[in-house]
Structure formats: C-alpha cells, structure tokens
Amino acid sequence: MSAGLWNLASFLIALIILIAVHEWGHFWVARRCGVKVLRFSLGFGKVLWSKKGSDGTEYSLSLIPLGGYVKMLDERVESVPDELRAQAFNNQSVAKRAAIVAAGPFANFVFAVVAFWLVFLLGVPGVKPVIGEISPTSIAYQAGLRSGMQILQVNQQAVTDWESVSYGFVGAAGQAEIKLTVESDPGVQQQIHLPLADWKLSPDEPLPFRILGFSPLGPEILPEVAKLTPGGAGEKAGLKAGDKILSVDERPVTDWQQFARIIQQSPEIPLQLQVSRDSQTISVTLTPARKETKDRVVGFAGLMPVVKPLPEKYLTETRYGPLDAVSHALKRTAEVTKLTLDVVGKLLTGTISADNLSGPISIAKGAGDSAGFGLVYFLGFLGLISVNLGIMNLLPLPVLDGGHLLFFGIEALLRRPVPAKVQDIAYRIGAALLMCLMAIALFNDFTRF
What is the rounded CA–CA span in Å between residue 155 and residue 214? Predict the structure, then answer.
C-alpha cells in the first residue's frame, strides 16, 4: 500500500473512532435524559446504510466521513405530536440540555484516558533524552549543553524520554528562557538556562529543540547504502545496496549526515563518488534530483543508509499494571489538556504563529505515521487527537458545543432563552470564524506538503 493510501486509511479509522465516541456521548446522555433520538449518524450527506433499532433510533453511515450527528426530537426543527412533546430536546431543562451537549466533549476526554491506559498497559517504548549532535555555534552549546548529557528535568518537570522533553519545550513557547536539569556524569547534575528570546516553534520541525542547536542521540547511521528508491537518482547512477560511500568529489566521507548534506546542496549537479563494492573501489557519477521544499530547493538521491540500532542502555519502556496505569493515564490526559489549552491561548495572543495550525492532511499523516509504528503509537495518537477534539468543541463558538453551552449559561442567568434572531446572527459569525480557521489550517497543510 502506498504511503498516501496508508495515511488516508489510518486517518479514516481514527476519524470514525473519534466521531463515534463524541456522538455516542451526546446519544447516551440524551437517552438518559428522556429525549427521543431520531438518528445516530456517522458522516454527513447522503445516507449509504441505515438500520432502525428496537429503540426507534435510525443508525446510519453517510457519505462524507468528516463528522457525525445525533438528531433529536425538537420542536424548533419539526412539528412534534402532543404525546411526544415531553421527549423533545427543546422542552428539557437547561441543566439537561447542557448535560446532553457537554457529553460529547466529555466522552472524548474519557476516551483519551482509556487510550492512554491501554498505552501504559501495553508498554511505551522510548529513548532516554541523551543529547547527541550539538552545533558548536548554537545557543544550546553557548549555554553549556554538551553531547552525552542526559536531560532529567525541563522547567522542574521530570522527563524520561524525548516525547516529554518536546512537550516541555512546546509549553515553554513565549518564555524568556527554559531551565534544564542535566546529568553529565553519573550522579553529577547541573542547571542549564537556555535563552528563548529568538526561538519560535516551527511547523516544519517536529522536535522543537533542534532549532536551538541540539538533537537526540540516535542510532549510528553508516555511509553505506541499505536500500534504493526505484527509479531514483541513486539507482540511475548505478549504485547498489551494500555500496559504501568513500568520497564525493575527492572529499572523504566520514558519516552519512555529511554525505546527505552534500546531496541536499547539489540539486541536478553531477557528483563523482568513490564507493567500495565487493572489496573493490569503483567510481560512480551521481546527479541528485531536484526537490522543492517550502522555502528552498534541495538535492534528492533516493538512498537509504544502513542504521545500527542504539545500545539497549539508552532505551526505555514505560509499562504499568492495570491499576497503576489508570493514574498515569489520568495524569497524561491532564498534561495533554493543559498543554493544548496553553497552545490555544498562545495562538490567540500571537505568541505562537498561526503557521503551526494543522488541518486534515497533517492529521492524516500523523495517523499514518503512528499506525505504521504500531498499535501503542496509534493509541497514543488517538488519545492526543481526542483531547484536542474535546477542547476544540468546547470553544465558545456558536456552531460548536461550547457555543451552545454559552447560550445555556446566558439562559440560566436571564431565566429566558437567548432570542432566536440573536442566536442566528451568532451562528453565522461563528461559522465564518470556523471557516477562516479551517482555511488557514488547510493552507498550512498544502504549503507544508
């Protein structure tokens, strides 16, 4: 299966799961509040399949899988027989209506806890946050960070892997500095203060700290070809799996990163390679293909290197029993919720650029990547997106659940519903704002990919 189809399939699976969870929250609470549910639909538009249950609800799958809905009996939408008026949504108390609306986002948070519980139960593979390559002219080096140091805390929060380090840096966006506790030798700890005045999150860099000049200690990447892209520049040049790169234009090659930089800097420029093949040294002319990125043109050879795995001493696995996993799942959900709210606030104030907004293409790629790594990573991705979906739906925009809750709150204070005309105007404004937000996210996706 191609990468595009894999990403799409993973995205649709994730979307259907999260939509089903959200709408089931509305559905379950509506039924408990005595409201008659006419239809439970996954998707919008033309109905592809439907079945009427013994409870009188029509369960359906619709053509456009970008959402879902729970259609309840409501006098504002259609006429309701006198004997069913008590089961209409609009005739419920403010508390019941608010509970029904809030149940969707709440179900997303509950699902996130369940997803993270399964993650911790199955075990999360990770890599200790030991610093690998660091630029000698970087902010990180000038602040005192060195290769081989292990990060123990980020702003006084303990970290055990690079994911938690990334969370710490994302949360520090907009701060003047970030404080790291590092261990240079066993038992020897020190504080490093990294200035962040000139640092901003970049949507093109999945590891935010790389912009400061340091990277995780990774597996050893040898200057040896492991695999070639069919029809790529490397295959056209006559390179084969097992070839060891010795030099490029008479410049000795000591590691793969050096070779990759030369390739990237030489789009459509012939390069003379000396390679070792079957104990013989041969000469090969490689002309890297031209590849356009968001802000520059780079060379691309279509080669994959031989990678030696990290030694086991650098690997971790976070695993808990069924009961302990519950508390850690709750903690992880709270951490992701806090981080997401913090990022939303910084987006609104301009501390974080709108370039960091992601749309369905980015989410699809994230779904495909996580699913490709395995079930644990896909569950973690689902938990993360479920929290984001819950928070997004609680934003006080009239077209979202949060907007309905805002109107219910005003109704409870004034003891009368918000006038229909005011609600209609608010819905139009909310829909326009939401469309603008989606347009920015889609634009970011297209420029990014």
Answer: 18
Tell me the pLDDT tens digit for each residue of 14-52: 888 999 999 999 999 999 999 999 999 998 888 889 899
Which DSSP state fits 248?
Answer: E
The 8-class DSSP code of residue 395 comes to S
Q: Determine the 3-state secondary structure of 44 from DSSP.
A: strand
The reported pLDDT for the residue numbered 377 is 86
Could you tell me if 216 and 207 are in contact, meaning their C-beta atoms sit under 8 angstroms apart?
yes
Amino acid at site 210: R
Residues 374, 375, 377, 378: is their CA dihedral positive or negative? Answer: positive
CB-based contact 205:294 (threshold 8 Å):
no
Q: Are 6 and 371 in contact (CB under 8 A)?
A: yes
Q: How much of the chain exceeds pLDDT 90, in percent?
A: 45
Q: Which of 180, 186, 185 is nearest to 153 (CA)?
A: 180
**SS3 call for 411:** helix
CA distances from 50 to 25, 57, 206, 406 (A): 20, 10, 41, 33
Burial class, 205, CB count within 10 angstroms (exposed 0-12 / middle 13-18 / buried 19+): exposed
Can you tell me the distance from the alpha carbon of 380 to that of 391, in angstroms, rounded to the nearest whole number?
17
- pLDDT surpasses 80 at 7: no
Burial string for 424-443 (b: 16+ CB within 10 Å, else e) reads: eebeeebeeebeebeeebbe
CA 147 vs. chain centroid, Å, equals 28
What residue has token string 């990294």?
Answer: 194
Strands annotated E in 279-438: 280-286, 289-292, 297-300, 303-308, 315-318
| Rounded CA separation 104/111 (Å) | 11
- Which pLDDT does position 374 carry in this prediction? 79
Residue 292 DSSP SS3 = strand
**Is 327:377 a contact under the CB 8 Å cutoff?**
no
- Expressed in percent and rounded to 5, the helix, strand and coil fractions of the chain are 45, 25, 25
Is the pLDDT at 181 greater than 90? The verdict is yes
Instruction: Respond yes or no: is residue 205 known to be catalytic.
Output: no
Structure tokens at 296: 């520059």
Pairing status of strand 214-216 against strand 303-308: unpaired
Report whether pLDDT(449) > 60. no
pLDDT per residue over 413-424, tens digit each?
Answer: 988 888 888 888
d(CA 416, CA 335): 38
Instruction: Supply φ then ψ for residue 335, to 5 degrees.
Output: -65, -45
Query: Which single residue is written with the structure tokens 């006559």?
Result: 238
